[in-house]
Structure to design on (300 residues):
C-alpha cells in the first residue's frame, strides 16, 4: 500500500501579508444526484452529521462538512481515513436512488489563507465581492483563482479554505504567494 | 464589462467567470433538412445592435447553461433565464420593451 501524500507536501509561507498553508490530507466525497430527493438528503446528512446546505452555502459539524456545489452536486468533507467507511454507508443509503457518490480526496488539493489581510489576498485573485458584509463565514463560492477553477469558503473570520484540482496545486500556491507577497497590502477592506 | 446573474445558482459575477455560448434559441436542422435550412442553421447568425439573446455557461461556477438578454451597445443585461426554453419569457420581453421600445430580434419582439 502506497503512502498518501498531499500535492505539495504541506507547503507553507508566512512572510507575506497573509499566512498560506497547504492543508493536510482531506477526505472529499463528491455527490451528484437530485438534491431535493429525500433519500439523497438523508444519505448525505446522516453521513456527514451536518444539515443540508442551502444554495451557495456550507454547513459543518465537527470535522465534517457539506458544501453546495451546484443544484445537483454536493461535496462532503470528512477525515481522510473515514472516506471508505462513509462512502460505503452512502452507497447503501443511495442504492435505490439515481445518484453517484465518488471519493475525490486524491484529485483535489486544499489550502488555507489566514490573517487580517486574507480577504485582500483572495480578492486579488477571484472576481468575487469579498467585502466583509458581502462574503461571510458560511458562504461557499465556486469561482476562479487567477486562471484556474477553485472553490472557497470562510470557516471563520480572517480565514479562507480553498479547494482546487490537485494538478493545479502548484499554480494556486504560486499565485497565492504572489498575491500575499510582503508589502503588497492594498488596505481596501480596512479603514 | 458584463455582469451576469446565473439563474441556476444565484451567483452574480462578471463575465470572466462565464463562457459565452453564442446565439440563443437556434432551431437545429440536421439530416433530411433542405440545404437552405441547413446552411442558415450552421452559418447564419444575428449580429444586432442593441437587443441580443445569447447562451452562456457558468463555467467556473455551477457549470450550468442559461440564457441572457443584453444590449450589445451598452452591455446592459436585461435579464437571464433558464436554458430549458425555446423562447424568451414574456415578462422579460415586456421589460425589454419598456427600455428599448420597438425592438425586434429574429422572430421575437
Amino acid at each position: 500500500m502506497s503512502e498518501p501524500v498531499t500535492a505539495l507536501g504541506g507547503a507553507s509561507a508566512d512572510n507575506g501579508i497573509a499566512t498560506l498553508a497547504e492543508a493536510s490530507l482531506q477526505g472529499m466525497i463528491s455527490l451528484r444526484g437530485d438534491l431535493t430527493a429525500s433519500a439523497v438528503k438523508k444519505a448525505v446528512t446522516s453521513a456527514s452529521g451536518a444539515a443540508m446546505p442551502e444554495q451557495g452555502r456550507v454547513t459543518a459539524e465537527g470535522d465534517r462538512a457539506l458544501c453546495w456545489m451546484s443544484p445537483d452536486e454536493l461535496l462532503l468533507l470528512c477525515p481522510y481515513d473515514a472516506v471508505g467507511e462513509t462512502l460505503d454507508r452512502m452507497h447503501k443509503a443511495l442504492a435505490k436512488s439515481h445518484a453517484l457518490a465518488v471519493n475525490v480526496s486524491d484529485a483535489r488539493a486544499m489550502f488555507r489563507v489566514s490573517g487580517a489581510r486574507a480577504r485582500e489576498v483572495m480578492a486579488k485573485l477571484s472576481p468575487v465581492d469579498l467585502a466583509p458584509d458581502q462574503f461571510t463565514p458560511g458562504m461557499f463560492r465556486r469561482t476562479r483563482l487567477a486562471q484556474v477553477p477553485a472553490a472557497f469558503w470562510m470557516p471563520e473570520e480572517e480565514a479562507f479554505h480553498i479547494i482546487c484540482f490537485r494538478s493545479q496545486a502548484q499554480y494556486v500556491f504560486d499565485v497565492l504567494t504572489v498575491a500575499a507577497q510582503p508589502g503588497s497590502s492594498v488596505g481596501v477592506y480596512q479603514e | 464589462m458584463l455582469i451576469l446573474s446565473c439563474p441556476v445558482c444565484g451567483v452574480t459575477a462578471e463575465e470572466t467567470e462565464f463562457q459565452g455560448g453564442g446565439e440563443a434559441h437556434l432551431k437545429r436542422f440536421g439530416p433530411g433538412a433542405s440545404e437552405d435550412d441547413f446552411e442558415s442553421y450552421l452559418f447564419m447568425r444575428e449580429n444586432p445592435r442593441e437587443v441580443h439573446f445569447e447562451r452562456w455557461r457558468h463555467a467556473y461556477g455551477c457549470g450550468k447553461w442559461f440564457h441572457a438578454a443584453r444590449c450589445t451597445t451598452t452591455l446592459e443585461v436585461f435579464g437571464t433565464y433558464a436554458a430549458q426554453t425555446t423562447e424568451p419569457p414574456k415578462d422579460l420581453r415586456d421589460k425589454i420593451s419598456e427600455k428599448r421600445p420597438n425592438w425586434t430580434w429574429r422572430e421575437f419582439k
